[in-house]
Amino acid sequence: MDKEVKAPEVVPAGFMGSREGFALWTTASWLLNLPRKHSLWYFLFSPACCAIELMQTGGPRTDVDRFGMVFRATPRQSDLMIVGGTVTYKMAERVKLLYDQMAEPKYVIAMGSCANCGGLFQRSYAVLKGVDQIIPVDIYIPGCPPRTEALADGMRKVQEIIMREDWRGKRRPIGEQPVPQAGQGGFIKRA
Q: Which of these CATH numbers, 3.40.120.10, 3.40.50.12280, 3.20.20.70, 1.10.260.40, describes 38-165?
């Protein structure tokens, strides 16, 4: 009469109940990543016109607050950095500094064509050709400017990345990428 019950391998969490009691099975990663997924605080960093779309994402039409995402004005309390807009070489050093001040685990969204590849200003001598040259980027959102729905979808993709992570491992080494400088022949690595 006693049957051995095996947890399914596909479902990350399961529940069995009867009159005598219940059993809940899951993995430690899933259990620890669930509250992280629903408490994602994003850092507002948008030096250009994508800032309007970024502000609108928190508005009533898209309302990312319902997913547990709240904006923070300081990098030390943020999990997610959204870089929206043009980043110049002069600003690249500050972006890297702000990224380094964020606590692990941290995630980055490159929002808009300017943050992805330089956009309209990619032929300018002062514009960084993509923020991924100074910090690692998890999600790229194309457009000039991208719609608020696209940014909300990118934020949900970050939540999916969080749920797939192992809670024990570190995401990426600190200080891995150098900050590029404008100069002859392209980038010059600082010693």
A: 3.40.50.12280
